[in-house]
Specification:
heterodimer, A: mainly alpha, Formate dehydrogenase/DMSO reductase fold, 19 helices, 0% strand, B: alpha+beta, Alpha-Beta Plaits
């Protein structure tokens, strides 16, 4: 019955969902055009640039920002640090939706979208992409299992089923962490096959380890980012003390990442490229400074960790830098074969710049993700705080004044 | 025709006259549009200074590597390498991910960007004309070539022939057979009078490129199992520790 009371309220919120729906509609139309006339009709992808914005944004960025799910599942279930429990469900939901978005985006990007399940039956064991495909599909299942109790708790009659799932959750949590470790790192391994295409500042045999360690930092930053935003949007309490505790781990993880990255460059003798490669050097430094060095310093200062606004700012900086890293590795630093290698008619497109429809697809899918997060968080007990107030009827602890007027 | 143990091509850049008959032959033989032909010719223009002017042309198609990166990369195993040379592609299992295009150091596989979901968008590349070579004929491009710039035969024999030709005209050729060792060897061999870099050919190591990623892939299953075992041990350990020391103590481990 709650549905009847909340639905008009949801309609009244207005602008944000409307904009999201508009983006989704545009993406849908573009996707239909792609299915009718081919990928070339809506994108700038070519023989020289088979992968572009979709892979960099939807796959590489989409997967890495979903890493909060396995981090929180590991912390709460395996290490049993129960105080982080309020962050668990939103992180799992973010991860679940994130991976669904990746899958949906691949359905647009693949030449044969209806055959995406072929990865389950045709195995080429030397392919890194197969590992990623299998891991993402399995992990989606694991996330669904991990999230089911939240859905079931919504219905009092199904509480028993939720309990049952909860009882047997441990094997799935461990499987989820293993699968995440595998595919977060394998996304780096994906580039191992192009040593002569990827710039030496980025190509290294330890790409998988770099990818995993940076995914850990992104996961933590993403939890800070997403809990802050949802606390504002849903006008609920923010677990600043928990986020501060989480942020304490960031300088350690970032330090580890930096040592690995520069250590590898030194060992491989590629340090010279740091200043001699023009745009590439600039991109490298931008990614290192924004994604690792500045956040490392920022989160080392206790004052920054105690203040929710500063926590949020630090997380945003880190996310921007690390997303730039994923774009660098999968797009900006990849040099494709010499143009003259292509037949004259193929040569039309030796430069790549994403087209508007291409970006519109990604924005639409992303909007659908935000929308789904909002709806699920509204109707299901995702946030522990809300869950508690429902039972105890205690007022929600608020750090920020309710921004109702600004929202409308 | 004599039995060929390992099918291969030899391209002599000094002989190519840029007539592009091979492109027409390929397109006719395989019934594909001219702008999607599996062989393509790049005229590199006139280079050098008068009176030492040079003109060079390069003919590209699939290199039929001995350790194909496309085959290593393809998640569904759409590529196969025949023991006697040809690398072939099977459209029936292809999912259109285009990872092979990224993996190929030569940029060979190309994709139907203009095909929607009903026609189906596939990868296309040189097949080595199996319908011809297994029936005692030369591949279409080779048979059409008027100047014998493209030759076909057994790989070892062609390598020998290439080296003999270089030895006979050391002033004319660069002393190197491209493809003999590049990327672990290819079945398309090239000799030239201009540096191979000018022909648009990448400088590749003698070890196959896919060695690194295949090694990493081999480690996947052992790593997954041991990581799973470690996590299980930690789970059991933390739970036991918590039971022993009462609730809440375990939190301090962080």
């Amino acid at each position: 019955m709650k549905l009847n009371i909340t639905l008009p309220k949801f309609l009244r919120i207005g602008t944000l969902p409307l904009i999201l729906i508009l983006f989704m509609a545009i993406a849908f139309v573009v996707a239909m055009m792609r299915y009718a006339f081919g990928i070339g009709a809506i994108s700038d992808l070519s023989y020289s640039y088979p992968w572009g914005f979709w892979i960099s944004f939807d796959l590489f960025t989409g997967v890495v920002i979903s890493s909060g799910g396995f981090l929180m599942a590991g912390t709460v279930y395996i290490l049993r640090i129960k105080e982080f429990e309020p962050l668990l469900r939103p992180s799992i939901l973010t991860a679940f939706l994130g991976y669904i978005m990746v899958a949906v985006a691949l359905l647009v990007d693949l030449g044969q979208p209806l055959r995406i399940w072929y990865m389950m039956i045709h195995w080429n064991h030397t392919s890194v992409l197969l590992e990623i495909g299998i891991c993402v599909m399995s992990y989606l299942t694991v996330l669904a299992i991990e999230f089911t109790p939240v859905v079931l708790e919504r219905f009092p009659k199904l509480h028993k089923v939720a309990h049952l799932i909860h009882k047997f959750i441990m094997p799935f949590v461990i499987l989820g962490v293993v699968l995440s470790t595998l595919h977060q790192s394998s996304l780096g391994s994906l580039l191992l096959i192009q040593p002569q295409k990827l710039h030496p500042l980025w190509w290294t045999p330890i790409l998988p380890i770099l990818f995993f360690s940076s995914a850990v930092t992104v996961g933590m930053a993403m939890i800070i980012f997403e809990s802050t935003l949802s606390s504002r949007y849903f006008q609920r309490g923010l677990e600043t003390h928990l986020l501060a505790k989480l942020a304490k781990g960031l300088p350690v993880a970032l330090g580890f990442y930096l040592v690995l990255k520069f250590g590898e460059l030194a060992v491989a003798g590629d340090l010279g490229y740091l200043f001699t490669s023009g745009v590439m050097s600039a991109l490298f430094w931008a990614e290192i400074l924004i994604g690792a060095v500045i956040p490392l310093i920022w989160f080392s200062i206790e004052k920054n960790r105690a203040n929710p606004n500063r926590l949020f700012a630090g997380a945003v900086i880190l996310l921007l830098g690390m997303i730039l890293n994923r774009f660098n590795v999968s797009w900006f630093a990849v040099k494709h074969p010499d143009p003259l290698f292509y037949m004259p008619t193929f040569m039309g497109n030796v430069k790549y710049f994403p087209t508007l429809p291409e970006v519109a697809v990604s924005i639409g899918i992303f909007s659908a993700g935000i929308m789904a997060f909002g709806l699920i968080a509204k109707y299901f007990p995702v946030f522990e705080a809300e869950h508690e107030t429902e039972e105890t009827h205690a007022p929600v602890r608020r750090l920020h004044p309710a921004p109702t007027a600004a929202d409308d | 025709m004599t039995d060929i143990k390992h099918h291969a091509y030899l391209f002599d850049a000094t002989r190519c006259i840029d007539c592009r008959a091979c492109m027409v032959a390929c397109s006719v033989e395989n019934n594909i549009e001219m702008d999607k032909t599996r062989i393509w010719v790049a005229g590199l223009g006139v280079t050098g200074e008068y009176p030492n002017l040079q003109r060079s042309t390069m003919v590209y198609h699939c290199m039929h590597c001995e350790h194909p990166d496309c085959m290593s990369a393809c998640p569904v195993g759409a590529y196969t390498k025949a023991p006697d040379g040809p690398v072939s592609y099977n459209p029936d299992v292809c999912i259109g991910c285009r990872y092979c295009m990224n993996a190929c150091p030569f940029g060979v596989p190309h994709f139907d960007y203009d095909k929607g979901i009903i026609d189906g968008a596939f990868i296309d590349k040189c097949t080595f004309c199996p319908q011809r070579i297994y029936n005692g004929q030369e591949p279409a491009c080779v048979q059409t070539c008027p100047t014998d710039a493209l030759e076909y035969g057994d790989r070892d024999e062609l390598i020998k022939r290439a080296h003999e030709r270089i030895a006979a005209h050391p002033d004319r050729y660069i002393n190197h057979v491209y493809g003999e060792h590049e990327n672990g060897g290819t079945s398309y061999l090239i000799i030239s009078h201009v540096p191979f870099k000018d022909l648009g050919l990448p400088e590749l190591p003698e070890t196959p490129i896919n060695e690194v990623s295949e090694k990493v892939m081999e480690m996947t299953i052992p790593f997954a199992l041991s990581w799973g075992a470690v996590l299980t041990a930690v789970t059991v350990g933390v739970a036991a520790y918590e039971k022993k020391n009462g609730k809440g103590k375990a939190e301090q481990t962080k």
